[in-house]
Design a protein that fits this description.
single chain; 309 residues; mainly alpha; 11 helices
Length: 309
């Protein structure tokens, strides 16, 4: 049992390390730079790259098709791709990397479990392999969901300042697309996640997509209610011709108020959360420090009194 817990802990640690490594080497999205590079490329180089992408894409598609034919494989691929998009991983091969790492982790856990249960009965081996398969598929999804929450937290923290800056830039007379691109450039080194999202929306609109559709895709990618409200406000303001700069200023103030209230609520909950560690870890140690010396002294005195003279 000890070996089993050790290997499970080692596998969990390996999963977290692999996902952190994948996140560190993940290149940042730069829609504008990608578009400029594509336009400045020569026709021959573009054709060669397209041919290589096509040949590579066929192999990737075949691999994903094979995985999708597994039991519940198509649903797993769909959910994984949705979580990857919401975690900020939108490169073409993000899903393939996720699938390969997950399958390797499942194979590793299954092998370790088989080695641990080598001398045990067949029933024990079967139960161990089932547990390894379940953990192998569940742990990467848990890590991915944590990455989604962290990405959403970054967007939520960046939203008030970004909305405020967008309202200021709109007040100078720039159009909405130009203002969003300027805000994306200014916020690139402070809040890169939300800056990339704004840059993606602008590039989609410039490519010919309707602004409403671009903002709907932004809402689906992020999954945040505040961004949904922001998108609805921008679309309605453009549709009815109302002042967007003033509306964004009021909305930014509301976001700051909400963030302050959330911080105050977190501070209020801190005392209750600290109650359990204090009762479980600090008070027993305090009792031992204060009572044990007195008990030892009393026992020593009783021993002295009870000893024959």
């Amino acid at each position: 049992m000890i070996y089993l817990l050790f290997f499970l802990l080692a596998g969990t640690t390996l999963t977290v390390l692999l996902w952190n490594a994948a996140e560190m080497v993940q290149p940042e999205e730069n829609p504008l730079g990608d578009r400029l590079d594509e336009l400045q490329s020569q026709a021959l180089v573009s054709a060669q790259r397209a041919a290589r992408r096509k040949s590579t894409g066929r192999g990737v598609d075949r691999f994903l098709d094979v995985v999708g034919k597994m039991p519940q494989g198509a649903e797993w691929l769909h959910n994984s791709e949705r979580l990857l998009h919401r975690a900020g991983f939108r490169r073409k091969y993000a899903l393939v990397v996720h699938v390969v790492l997950t399958l390797l982790f499942v194979l590793l856990l299954t092998s370790l479990m088989w080695w641990v249960e080598l001398n045990n009965p067949v029933t024990s081996k079967l139960i161990g392999i089932i547990v390894a398969l379940l953990l192998g598929f569940l742990l990467p999804n848990i890590v991915l969901e944590r990455l989604v929450k962290r990405y959403r937290r970054k967007l939520q923290e960046a939203l008030p300042d970004t909305v405020d800056l967008l309202g200021i830039v709109l007040g100078t007379g720039l159009a909405l697309d130009q203002a969003m691109m300027r805000v994306s450039e200014e916020m690139q080194y402070i809040y890169p996640a939300l800056a990339d999202e704004f840059g993606t929306v602008v590039m989609q609109v410039r490519a010919g997509q309707e602004r409403t559709t671009a903002f709907q895709q932004l809402v689906r990618r992020t999954g945040l209610e505040d961004i949904k409200s922001l998108a609805a406000m921008i679309v309605q303001s453009e549709k009815f011709g109302t002042s967007l700069a003033q509306a964004l200023k009021v909305y930014a103030d509301a976001l700051r108020t909400r963030r302050r209230l959330a911080a105050e609520a977190a501070v209020g909950k801190a005392g209750i959360k600290m109650l359990f560690p204090i009762v479980i870890f600090i008070l027993p140690v305090l009792f031992i420090i204060t009572l044990v010396p007195g008990l030892l002294s009393v026992l020593q005195d009783l021993k002295i009194l009870g000893s024959p003279r």
